[in-house]
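Moderator note: this is an archived Q&A kept for reference. The question asked for a predicted structure of one protein chain; the sequence and the answer are reproduced below.
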Amino acid sequence: MNGAWLRQFWADLLSRFWLRPAVMTLAAILLAQGLVMVEGVRLPAWLESWVYAGGISGARGVLGAIAGASIGVAGTMFSITVAALTLATQQMGPRLLGNFTRDAGNQYALGTFVATFAFSLVALRSVHEAENGAFVPQLAVSTALLLAGACVAMLVWFIHHVASSINLDRVVALVEADLSAALHALPERGDGAPVPPAGGDPAGPAAPLRARGSGYLRVLDDAALADWAEGAGAVLRFAVRPGGFVFPGSTVGEVTPAALREEAEAALASAMSLGNTRNVEQDLEFAVRQMVEIGMRALSSGINDPFSAVNVLDHLGASLCEAARREFPDGITWRDGVARVSRPTTDYAGLVDAMFHMLRQSAADQPAVMIRLIEVIGAVAGVEHDPARRAVLRRHLDLAHDAALAGCDDPSVRAAVAERADAASRALSQDARLADAA
């Protein structure tokens, strides 16, 4: 069984739009059938007064009305959702559609109406007349009335939820939450495992490893590959990282010794998951690029919304402040002092490049955005104390300062840019002095 595929399949299954509605509908069908079967059970006096006490025609009318109304509103909700997704796609890009479809609130809202519809139908089929008397599932009818009230409340909540879901600030915050969750999975600074002493690597030439499929590398099970390599006495070195696109038959790495090539390719096929889309689990840059895409679309001539780009920069800066406490993996998995698996990973410099390069290039003629970019770098400098990372921030500060001055001739704007750049530069220098003193 492909462990990485199974892990990714489970994550994808939980995000499917139909999963929760399907489970809720099945539960409603079972509940309706169960209430019909226990009809006639004695209830407490205080509860008996709340149970439906009408006849056959009334029960059929109530259940039919609830079923018709719930499925009709479900269709309306679907139309509202499609319209909201259309607006979101135009403003924020198609790659953010997954955030809407996997939203648990949308799924529970649709599931409530579909489950009520299914419950009412199952209860309605049990209402009948017989020679020895009529059968009215009073408990089921009463429960259907409760579900109808829940549908009304859910409809009011869903309208509010959809209206807030297409709010750009909230969408950016949700994407940042995904990135923050991925950063929280990284070890804190100083808590990483020490590097084991180097052992002897297998001797002999290396053989290339070729991909047996195509798509974006979504998950790579480093631990499983390291376990296999330890047992086989091999070393695996990969040239592709999670988030990269794998072409069919392309070389994705190499194995030493070369005689284990076929076994290594089989182990690799079981430890990697390929798909049509990227995800943030092992690909930190994916969430970053989602936010950057929102900012770039906001800066396009058709939208021209620099305030949204500033909002994106604020959240990117918050993510960098969170990253200041985290240790980025080196992509090496050790077993008994031997680096059994090594692969490229996203480092701090690559993450910052993904955040700022494209936004800086798109916002060169937007003074407000460039000033905010410089301010964000200065704010992050007050949190980040690692010299190598401060050097990365210094490089982006210089690039932003030069781009802002080149993109505007207004003396007041140039003065504001210089003032913010000086403040950020002082923050970087102060952090350096504090680090040296420590």
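Archived answer notes: Residues 165 and 304 are 21 Å apart (CA to CA).
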